[in-house]
User: What shape does this take?
Amino acid sequence: MPKKIVVVEDEPNITEAISFILSRDGWEVSTHANGETAAEAVRAAAPDAVVLDVMLPGRSGYEILQDLRADPEFAALPVLMLTARGQKKDRDLADRLGATRFMTKPFSNAEMLKALREIAGDLD
Amino acid sequence: MAVSGLTGSRIRERRSAIGLRQADLARAVGISPAYLNLIEHNRRRIGGKLLVDLARELSVEPTQLSEGAEAAVLSQLRDAAARLSGAAAGQAAPELDRAEELVGRLPGWAGLVNAQARRISELERLVETLSDRLTHDPQLAASLHEMLSSVTAIRSAASILTETRDIDPDWQARFLRNVREESQRLSDSAEGLVAYLDTGGDMTERPLSPADELAAFIEAAGYHFAPLEEPRGGEAEIEALLETADTLRDPGAIAMARDMLGRYLADARAMQAGPFATSRTATDDPGRLAEAFGVGPDAVLRRIASLTGADSGLVACDGSGTLTLRKPIAGFSLPRFGAACPLWPLYRALVRPSQPVSALVEMPGRVGRRFLCHAICMPRATTGFSAPMVFEATMLILPAPDAGGPADPVGSTCRICPREGCAARREPSIMGDQG
Assistant: This one.
């Protein structure tokens, strides 16, 4: 059974590229672009991993992560944070809020696949 | 030759240097040779017209003869030393006690030190502004974010296109379209960013704040604007002055200068130069002049300053004590950045709104220069009964004879003030045991 992943990202062309490579890699991908409803969407999908962008309309990725981590059911969910800012304070904040991995844009497709395989365990 | 800090000695040195006889110089400025002799031996203090006449005959600037110039250069040198104190570890400290010697013997080098110190503070402020801008500029942040998003999408799509061997033609077309779209967006945002940074490039040419530009504008004019003294002077003359002022470049500074000139115009209309001069021969009391012309005492102080050239200085401050108007006068050193001496009558007036303050003050120095200061604090136009009142204090600074009676000791600003045991001191001085 394919593993499920939710991509929370508001740039349509980035979403499309990520979805494409993840699907080819065997993931079952669903996407979400709105920050305000993202936490809800993740809960409903109950995925095996999440790709979460920081800059989203409505709510930031940090706030969404905080929500998810506050819920025991999602406290251990693998989350890959994506941001266009790679400063130390951004990294530290992501760490503190419980991000599983942190990746700065632009990233290579191979890097992203590798990171997701590592944090979500090998695919069947 | 011993270096003397006194005006008389300097006149004598200069006269000998150009080979002029005492009697000839005395005749040229209309005084007796005996009197000139007293002056040259520092037995008579001079200033005003006589100093100007002597300077003209000796072909030097009056300030080169007066102590004011030396005091100003000295205080700038001390300020320069204060700014870098501690920064130059492992290097001999500047000989503060020999600053006068430097000014006397090597005025050119002293001037260079001061010019460099000024440039350094300007550049420091520029760096601060720029780093603030990089950290906090929302437009810059948004623009960079946009570019990074495009680059991310392009990189990802390009890699899909090149690395996916059996890619479906529909998908291929889709990613090609994405690449085209995102490259267009990337080039637009890059252009926008370049245009934005290009405009910002002007900043290197105007490192000063609008307040500093305004101060430079007022100083260059000596707080006297001839076109506004004409009976027909009005808004058009104000705009012409603003346009021709090369010290004013920042739009904020221009707006501030427009307000300042508007007020100047109102003062000049209410107190026309001719009648005002006539009234001043009858009384020099700012309060009486205010009554005679039906204006506020602060307007009278400004008006006197605007009509008396180098013989007066003027400062104004807002409720926070920040200087908002500054016309310098030789010997009364106005700090360029930061706060001034809290003992200035200006600040005494600030805490007692509407009550005039007149005081004889003395600046520190071997021969303390004395000034008669008139100050008053008035409310500025308010916006209503419920709004907080906004006050402004104004101080006129007039030279006073050096002898006779007690004077309040004041300074320029704490860092370069030698006065010990001053109750108003807010930070230590770099001047050590001087004064």
Q: What stands out?
A: Chain A touches chain B at residues 11, 13-14, 16-18, 20-21, 24, 55, 84-85, 105-110 (CB under 8 Å). Chain A has a mean pLDDT of 90. Chain A has one domain: 4-119. The CA atoms of residues 24 and 61 of chain A lie 26 Å apart.
